[in-house]
Amino acid sequence: MGAQVSVPDGVHVVVVGGGFGGIAAAQQLRSAGFGFTLLDLRDSFHHNVAALRASVQPGFAQRTFIPYAETFGTSFLQGRVERVDPEGQLVVLQGGREVHYSHLILCTGSDGPFPGKFNTEASLQDGVTIQAADSVLVVGGGATGVEMAAEIKTEYPDKKVVLIHSRIGLADPLMAQSVRQQAKEVLLEKGVELVLDQKVSNLSELPLNRTQKNLQVRTDKGETLETDLVICCTGIRVNSGAYASSLAADGALKVNQYLQVEGFSNIFAVGDCADLREAKLAYHAGLHAYVAVSNIISSLSGKPLTPYRTGYVSMLLAMGRDDGVGQFNGVRLPRWLVALGKSRDLLLWKSWREMQQKQP
Ligand SMILES: Cc1cc2nc3c(=O)[nH]c(=O)nc-3n(C[C@H](O)[C@H](O)[C@H](O)COP(=O)(O)OP(=O)(O)OC[C@H]3O[C@@H](n4cnc5c(N)ncnc54)[C@H](O)[C@@H]3O)c2cc1C
């Protein structure tokens, strides 16, 4: 893609959500010469892949926010979409403003606890309280929890870091067993203590992301762990608020192989909010965006649509800034290569380049 296409009158694409999927879609629409509106409740793209580093390195956070308006000008509109009206072909923003579309790309992504996700309740100041804690407990040993524990132990080798996980196997179950095992080995090499096959039973009573001496954390196996800081890395859920009432979904959007939302030829779902049997990844959101925009172009010119096919699993885990584990297209990569390719800069350069702005 990239070449301008002849866009019929009346075509205006609305992209809801400027995460990894949304900015990829908006860039492709712009290169192809489409009129479009990118909507997001924030004024800046948040690079959540790099968010964990921002909580251990003071000053890093500003690199994880890239302002939309500088890239997209008046094609960007800030606001929270509260409703989609497929009959009237419009989206309704908080406050009542309506934006009409001929084609709609929904990329509302997912939300979860700070610091992995930066939602409205979170404050950037929360990230730096790690400095004041002598011990940190990370809850949840999925991909985010594994990366979080490694980031903290790398920046603060003298702090006690404990990772508690409800299962034996760490990281994402879609990753190769050997890569998951390697993640465990790196954590142990760095000195992270693992509490596996146990669940925190009093999580709702504990303060999160805030240092407080001698917090008592209880587990479902009757153990009590003492820590100064609890960071929660579980509980990612799809942001369905924009469309739940009209598109009959209280979670991810059901899509066909062309990424069209079930029942609509002009509404597409991209990224974490699309119900696809694959890992929820920024990398996949970019691939989905490409297919959705290609299919809008094909549908306007009467060409056959392109199906989206899930590929072999590609996932990289930054184990702090100096180490990493992962696989590309199902093949395990050497640790030094992941460290070089992902962990050093967390692929921030790629998003700044995509947004055509200079990284501070
Ligand atoms: C800590 C962490 C590390 C990760 N590491 C990797 C990695 O290394 N590689 C990788 O490929 N993936 C990684 N991921 C996963 C990746 O971040 C997600 O898959 C990706 O962000 C999904 O992109 P998206 O565009 O679907 O949604 P999101 O990035 O979640 O963006 C959604 C956007 O929609 C906006 N929005 C939501 N609702 C509304 C509304 N009603 N109105 C207006 N705007 C709205 C939000 O403000 C947000 O900007 C990681 C995730 C986390 C949490």
Automatic annotation (TrEMBL):
Signal peptide from the UniProt entry: none
Pfam family, one: Pyr_redox_2
Keyword Oxidoreductase part of the UniProt annotation: yes
GO biological process: apoptotic mitochondrial changes; positive regulation of apoptotic process
One Gene Ontology MF term: flavin adenine dinucleotide binding
Record field: catalytic activity: menadione + NADH + H(+) = menadiol + NAD(+); phylloquinone + NADH + H(+) = phylloquinol + NAD(+); ubiquinone-10 + NADH + H(+) = ubiquinol-10 + NAD(+); menaquinone-4 + NADH + H(+) = menaquinol-4 + NAD(+)
Cofactor names: 6-hydroxy-FAD
Domain of life (superkingdom): Eukaryota
The keyword Flavoprotein is assigned to this record: yes
Entries under InterPro entries matching the protein: FAD/NAD-bd_sf, FAD/NAD-binding_dom
Keywords (A to Z) from UniProt: FAD, Flavoprotein, Oxidoreductase
Domain FAD/NAD(P)-binding: 12-285
GO cellular-component term (any): mitochondrion
Function recorded in the entry: Putative FAD-dependent oxidoreductase.
Membership in a protein family: Belongs to the FAD-dependent oxidoreductase family.
Protein name: Ferroptosis suppressor protein 1
The species this protein was found in: Poecilia reticulata
